[in-house]
Fold each of these.
Amino acid sequence: MDSRNVRILIIEDSLTQALRLQDSLEKHRYETQIANNGKAGLVLLKEKVFTLVISDIIMPEMDGYELCRQIKIDEQLKDIPVILLTSLSDPQDVIEALECGADNFVTKPYNEKFLISRIQNILVNRELRFNGMSEMGIEIVFAGKKHFITSSRMQIIDLLFSTYENAIQKNYELEQVNRELIMTQRELEQKNIELAKLNEQKNYFLGMAAHDLRNPMGAIFNTSELLIEEDLGPLNEEQKEMIAAVKSASEFMLNLVNDFLDIAHIESGKLTLNQKLEDVTRLLEKNVLFNKHFAMKKHITLDFHYDNSNTFPLIPLDASKFQQVMNNLISNAIKYTHSGGVVQVFIEKKEGQIVISVKDNGQGIPENEIHDLFAPFQRTSVESTAGEKSTGLGLAIVKKIVNAHRGEIWVESQVGKGSTFYISLPFSDTEVSISSPKKSVKKNTASKEQYRPNALKSSGILLVEDNITSRKVALKMLEKKGFHVDIAVNGQEAVEKLKVKNYGLVLMDLHMPEMNGFDAMKMIRNPASSILNHQIPVIAMTATSTDMNRSQDEIINAGMNDFLLKPLHRQQLFEKIKKYLVPPEENDLYTNIADLPDEKIFDPNILFSQVEEDKSLYHDILRRYQSKVPKYIDRLHAAIVQKDNEFIIKIMNTIKEDSEAVGAIIITQLIDRMAPLLQAEAFDQLAMYTYTLHDALDRINFWVNQKIQTIE
């Protein structure tokens, strides 16, 4: 049939849908007219002649089913084919269509090509339906209800075929969608691979950035530290203030770089733990002791409390990561507590968990800010009490580390009263239990480790570092402490030096040109090489956090004894060196100082009787002695290095006279021991005595400070 002779009535309440359908039909030269509901459509059908009706089902006033019934019971309209637009989501739709006498279905949303094909088929079969029409009806039961079907057999067959065709069409569309989904999934997989590569490249870049940023920032920090301690000469107050600002800013930048790299490393899923069975109480004691210095600067009391009668099991921990967690929590408590405040650390056992808490009586955290406290780059509205800076990453890192230990962290806080941070770590009943230390942290501060003499091997240290700035700063710190230091700028040069000289310790950078630290270690530990001492202690140094996280085991497996993260901090550097140069049990001076009772170290009555028990004058003289003698010892060491015998005698006499006056017995005795060494010009041994003098003075200072606090 020529489409130009076909007039189609579109009955659709949605104007947008109606116009879209009209456009599709008119492109194929069908004449169309639109009605917006069933009633309006019936009026048009009675006024004009239409070849075909296409109707939506759900419409106001009269739906599509009722419209179809009205058409089929009208003698003048009943032969007009009716196509219903439906979602065909329920078998009941087919029954309803059969009941109302519909001729065909088209599912929504429809395919234009499929719709035109359906119209053409209906028009071709129209004559067949005229010849084979039957008026007989049939009663059926479907879904528990009776339905009377009056459609002719041809109508029923046509309708069922249309249903089948719709199903085929829908299946084809689903297959098409499925193919598109598969293609999309493959594209997503490819994108994920590309993103993973980009993430690896980002991490590599960050690692290189750490190496490039840490070295210059570390140099600024360490140089400012040397300056502010007046190791390079005296400063006036204005200079000290400016250098302190430089030191503070560089320290903040270093912390920011470290925290950023830590969180990036953790978020990439590469957080690895080097867990061993650890004594938590011992680790906490060390951390509290480490932070006491910072607490004292702000006049804050820092204490560690535990039940002496309780036993705590050894639990699997990455000790360095655990100390990072505790250092963050304790330093934060100090940071946000006012001068004169109190910070307390507690440990207890609760239902298979070791619970550690850090409590302060500081400013507290607003309740509405606690929820996001452990998210990266989150800062509260609370300001630090002394202007300390924060990167906003510390607690996010803490939470990740605690969770990696299968632990939990949470906080309770009240504005104006303080905060308490809690950590719970699981333990097993099968894990070994140990008794808690019987002495408190306060008592342990006078342990032998505090004033162990730093007697060093005269063979000295080999510093292997390619970065000229880092090398200069490290050399200055080591020489200021009295170390004999040789330099190598790469692994190959270090190997050559170790073939001709027997050093006491090697400080080895990992990333260097020509030969890196790992390759150098293979040569050092190889028994077939001509290295003089294959067992020499080696401390690895790196500015790349990925080295520390990736390969703590790798560094040790390579034969290195220990590692340090650059920039080198003076205290950490010297603590590491003490572990490997001259063990205490091999040093007679250690026995003479560390094991001596207080009365063999210092006699307070000597000075007290001379000032006629004037406490104010007594304290003033002691403070001046504590201030002057460390500088005298440093000058003595410099004179020994320069082999200036005349100045050595002069400064030794000055130290001895001042020490005798205040009752510093051990200092006087050490100076007496040095006299025959000077006559023999045993300058190496004299240099070692200067370190012992410093440590002996540390014990005296500790005793004096304790006594003065007690008297005051």
Amino acid sequence: MPRKKPRIDRLVVFRWGLATLFAFALITQARLQVVDRRATLDKAEATHRFTMERKEVAKRGSILSADGKAMAEDDDTYSLVVQFDEVPESDGFFVDLSAATGIPASEFSQLAATGVVSRTWSQPMTPAQQKAVQAVKNRWRANGVSISPSGQRTYPLGPAASCIVGISSRTSKLGLEKSFNSLLSGKDGHTTGLVDRGGAFLPMRLTKDSVPKTNGKDVELTIDSELQTLATASIKQAVESNHAERGVVIVYDPHTGDLLAMANWPSFDPTGKGTDASTVVSDFNPNTMSRLEPGSMFKTLTLAKALDMGAIDTHWKGYCAGQFTVGKKVIHCSHGAHHDVDITKVIAESCNVSAASWALRIGRTEYFKYLDQLDVLSQPNIGLPNEKEGWFSRNDPAEQLQLANLGFGQAINVTPVRLASAFAMIGNGGVRMEPRLIRRVGNEARPPVSKGQMIKAETASEVMGCMEAVIQTDIGTGKTLRIPGYRMAGKTGTAQRIGKGKSGYVANFVGFVPAPNPKVMILVMVENPTGGKYYGADVAGPVFGIMARATIRRLGIAPTEPISPADLKAATKPAAEVLPTKPGAMVPNSDKTTKSDKAYESDKTHKSNKSHRTYPADEVKPRQLTQPRKATRATKAHKVHTRRPVVEANDGPPDNRPSSTRGRGRHPVPAQDRDNRD
């Protein structure tokens, strides 16, 4: 039989053939990518087919609040630019680009046909569209297509922070966006080199002139976003309801100098909504740019210096007949005679006569040194543009009259931030901290700065006790501002606006929450209220009350004395329940509105309960409640006396010269017109 031929296994042949092809491809690629790699890349580079140049746009840094909320940041959108002389003149390309961008293909075609060289589409594109455009660019090798961040900034807090943050646009920069522009903006880069089929640059084939981008640095502030928003809403309500020119409110940490809130009204919308193109946007921030008269609030600083240098002591007693003559001028107490007074009653009832006599005892030289130590006349130096210095004439010819007026906060104009720093040292054991707005820039922390001991800790404690009487006693000018369970300290002030073309008053209030070891100091100043009320307690006091409750809730401040659950709930009400508002007003996290006249009715019910207040065993009672000497002073206010005003011989001779002008272009102001009202 003939022998059969062996069968050829086709599957085996196929497998060997496939293996041979793979081996050949592997050898070819190895030769191409390893042996001849440089020559291959050189050829690709010479043709420029796979070479691309891309501008790397730096991301602008964000401005952040202390609680991590964005106050200014770039939005996550992009703009499209097409250079028509560097893209394919193909309907297919335009259709592909249209699908990625949503812009009609006919629009691209018409622009190319009419000879337009370049066109930018400013409408923002999403990140998904940005990726799709990049893919089209790579597929068609269209170097004339570029996408870049739109550069549009978002400002989540809106008008509540615009006078701090400012704005950044192609035409202007304001606020921190201006003063920190070089750090926020970073530096653009560019990349040139070979790309793969997916459009990614080959790391080893970048040209030497490629420069990486440097993103801008984030700037972290000390501002708490919730307190800032509520502070703006509360000062807005105060300004509008009292028909005032403007107002400010500062929430200040006396132990660090941190500005937890720094609000003002009027403000502006950084988005430009509701304004026409001709509107000039101003970042005028009265916290750092207005020079205001502190008024009777300044009496606390006068008392602190007089006690600290021994010009008076804690047992000082005086008599107020309602007016005080310095030379030929007369200083008045706006509410008439206070009769027998001690240091507590002077602060609680705000006696101008006594404060003027204390200033005369201190003397010009020592008081001027004190002003320099407190640094109240310097620029705030917190990082905002156009900060202003305070104003005070050291060459006033009516020296004694000027000094007497200085004792109760006239004859001097100070920016609110500098004033806040001076007052806050009373709540920090006499140590003054520089005001701090910037907590961190990039990775660089900016720590608190102490300016040292201004007054002794014992003196600060004495002054704080006197300020408690303003709120915690029935004789105090701030008695309606009590919060059950919390001992607070404060001082009202109502100063006349002095100067050419000025009239009206500045209504002020400064206070500490709580009085023992204060966590915050709150300063409120409302300029030129014309709605009928102008006393500090009536106009600025309610704003203090709102912010006191807000800080108790926000910072978790514990009560300083026994409190019922109902009172504790009332003391920590949400913003919408304590803020007097009108429909449409700014209220954080709420749409509720209330009537302003009813906002503080609950406080008024406590004004007659002082004698029944109790304190924990481990708490130190207020000075006026623990010492019989101080507890009985209030009763003496109702007696009628005929003694002369107290002006000790060592106060210095009265000055008979006329009062000087207060600065260039200002008119002489008689002392009797410099009443300080509370």
Amino acid sequence: FGPHFHRPENQGGMISIPFANEQSRTEHIVTLWADFTDAPGATVQSTLQTTQDLGGVAIMAHPGRYTTGAGGNPASSHNPLRVSQYVELFDRFDSLLGFELFNRNDNETRSDRVVWDNVLSELMPYGRSVWGFSNDDSHSMNQAGFNWNVLLLDELDEQGAKQAMEDGAFYMVARVNRGVGETDPEVNTTMPDGSPMPNGGNANTVFMLHQAAPSIANIVAEDNNIAISANDYTEITWVADGQIIHTGNDLDINAHWNNINSNYVRAQITGPHGVAMTQPFGVRLASESLRARPGTNNLVSIDAPQDVYVLHGAPATPQGLRLPTTAQSVSERGWRAPAEITWDMNSIYPAYDPTNLTDIQSFTVTGTIDLTNTIVTNDHGASLERTINVTVGVDSRISIYEANRQRSVGDLITVEGYVTGVRGNGQLVIQDSNSQWGGLFVQNQGGTGAAAVPNQLTNDLIGQWIRVSGVRHVQWHNNAVAINTATGLGYWEIIENVENRPVITPTEISLDQLQLGVQGAWNNMLVSFNAPLIHRNYGLDGNAAVHQLRHPNYGRVEVACTTMPEKAVNGDIIRVDRGIVHWRNDLESHRIHANWTMGTITLPGQGVSIGQELLNRRADILANGLRGNLDLTNQTLTLLLEGMEPIVLATNVNNANIEGEVDLGCYTLIFDIKGNGNNVRVFDVVLR
């Protein structure tokens, strides 16, 4: 994508942008005008620094993938720690232009407008703008044309495009808005038949390309008023500090000044077939100046650590009590940098007795922050001590629904549920209900060897009710909780008393629902379904078989399993009971994990193919040959086998000699017939 690949100026009325790359070694970052590709070991900071050094620009791509926002959970989008991480990046790198706020059909990005407003609220008072982009991220032609950016250019040239991106002289348009945030309007969230909108474009969403999405005709900002003229819209809303402050084409800044607390306002132009969003308008009192960023980065405060809850008998050590290894320091520039903390176990007050397995004990522990490896200084001599509250004997258990939908990345959580699936050594799926968000991925980060890592999660836990305590995180689109039994951070245990526990039954589902459903909405769910087998393959996924099931319109679903019924052949209808759903981002499809869950894969009696029936009779055919009768009716020659559907060998039969072959799925039937009319003299059939 270098300069030598530029389109001629008169080709299609288009220009090319050089060195366009989605850097994917870390959180995905779109870089433009920067000739490099990340090497292994790159970090977000190193990628942005290289981009800046080469004179390029960067965009943070689909941040919801890394904040739990992809599942429609805006909790991490409000998390001060997560927000401050982006604030730091935009503060440090002028070449970082903004966020990708719409990606494909707004699945992963559905809560990213929440992140955007939170970051704007921190940075706009200092005059640092953060622009929003809307991108297709298309991996096929059917995924193109759903998101775009309208750049305001004097001339169609490369430098003008770069300048418009840097200046925010553009607006974004998206055909789908899933509307998770408080300000977000829902647009095109379902298909015309009422089924869920797919995660990305496909053959069935092309109809949206013929719909008129909103567009902006003109913007006039003067006399403390902003007026927008638009096309194909029904409503214009104005947003400040993450809240809608006005509805209408004109915004009187004076009338709404008391609701504009962070020196910005932005507009959303909504129509029946999409949404257009402006960039933030910076506003301030004429008599006041914007804040100035301090030249130093001294410590201002240290975030209070989360309260900790552990079980009876927890050792009086930092690991045993699940004390965090870092604390978040807040600097003069508003950055929250993790700093190591050392806990003084002699500071426990009041005293703690690990041998007391009856009483609930509450106490505090004091720790000291070490800023050595941070970018924060402490020239003012602020206190580096912090205390944490610990309760032994009680777990603050929450539902898996709450863990998935209301808890942020980094939160300490405790959940209970049935183990309904296993994905590799030390990776489980647990559920506590049949709700759509009833699955949680449990990842053991303590290692893989049972000898080296006690308390290892194993297949033996399938069907058990367990309690898991650890750190909320995201593991490739899966809402997850991480434990580390090697270091003592988190734990799991079997709960023997399962009285009054819900019974987890599989959800009957179709391939349509899987492929048309919101990406990740079915993640970790226990499902059952029937589907045709179109391909079976071996040697993948640790010698498991991967079998593709295909819907004619919506693409494939994979079944990854240890065994498939030996007699299953392409075309057969197979039955998957109690399979675990997993979204494969790289394949843009769902995968069903079966066999290594509580599930089974069978061949139902109905819909068995002729090829399958011949496989069933394989031993008899090898011993005695294939025996049957021929029928010639209306010039159609048919082979009749007892207990099977007729096999048509040939049509339009008009001579005595007929030969050919028929594909039966697992066998090819080769025939050679010689005779006169219905008087067959030689009949030979071979199964290959």
